[in-house]
Amino acid sequence: DVKVTQSSRYLVKRTGEKVFLECVQDMDHENMFWYRQDPGLGLRLIYFSYDVKMKEKGDIPEGYSVSREKKERFSLILESASTNQTSMYLCASSTRRGGLETQYFGPGTRLLVL
Amino acid sequence: AQSVTQLGSHVSVSEGALVLLRCNYSSSVPPYLFWYVQYPNQGLQLLLKYTSAATLVKGINGFEAEFKKSETSFHLTKPSAHMSDAAEYFCAVSDRYYGGSQGNLIFGKGTKLSVKP
């Protein structure tokens, strides 16, 4: 089974802090994704990566950056956290092998910025 | 731009009743389509996916979905709801056929399913 883990389930930070959210997958997937989920808005793509050291902006990259130094790990960074970044953050991974790239999700990190 | 519309942000059914969650997509070619389920305080879990092999797709937990090209729909159904089906359900389309970036998913806004005893 694919396993995608996220470093924290719940996180409380203060405005202006630098925040790191870590995601690790154990299935040698090439693709990794970061989404945020807000009530009534569904999932919105922040950043994605198709290979080590690669990154692409998604639909809402402002205020975020990412790092992919190793294939299994994809980090989301909030350079200076703001209250409007309070949200649920979901990481996902997928593989291009076999054609259809089903995304597998981690359990999510619920971030509260005070 | 491609999009996914889920009709109804909340659906409530009685235990044992039919579950019908609606999803429509915008596309001029058949896309790849997915349904995911999210239980409270958890990540998303794949329920089923359409890959053009068959229009009726069976998934886990007794769910199925039918791809209807003429209606650009991919509605999710289950004949008899169970209390454990209470969750949020997301329909998604892959942008692979739109010249998008190798299979990004575009999600609908989700439908919360409540099941009454």
Give structural notes.
The complex is a heterodimer of chains A (about 110) and B (about 120). Chain A has about 110 residues and is mainly β. In chain A, about 0% of the residues lie in helices and about 55% in strands. Chain A contains no helices and eleven strands. In chain A, strands 2, 4, 5, 6, 9, 10 and 11 form a seven-stranded mixed β-sheet that branches. A four-stranded antiparallel β-sheet of chain A has the order 1-3-8-7, with no helix packed on it. In chain A, strand 5 and strand 6 form a beta hairpin. Chain A starts with a strand and ends with a strand. The model of chain A has no long low-confidence stretch (mean pLDDT about 90). Chain B has about 120 residues and is an all-beta fold. In chain B, about 0% of the residues lie in helices and about 55% in strands. Chain B contains no helices and eleven strands. In chain B, the strands form two sheets. In chain B, strands 2, 4, 5, 9, 10 and 11 form a six-stranded mixed β-sheet that branches. In chain B, strands 1-3-8-7-6 form a five-stranded antiparallel β-sheet, with no helix packed on it. At the A-B interface, strand 5, strand 9 and strand 10 of A face strand 5 of B.
- How big is the Rg of chain A? 13 Å
Largest interface: A-B, 28 and 24 residues
Number of strands of chain B: 11
Order of helices and strands of chain A: EEEEEEEEEEE
Percent of residues in helices of chain A comes to under 10%
What is the terminal separation of chain A in angstroms? 37 Å
Radius of gyration of chain B: 14 Å
* Tally of strands of chain A: 11
Indicate the structural class of chain A. Answer: mainly beta
What is the beta-strand fraction of chain A?
A: over 45%
Number of helices of chain B: 0
Overall shape of chain A: it is globular
> Which spans of chain A of ≥5 residues are poorly predicted at pLDDT below 50?
none
Instruction: Return the structural class of chain B.
Output: mainly beta
Name the average pLDDT of chain B. 88
- Count of alpha and pi helical runs of chain A: 0
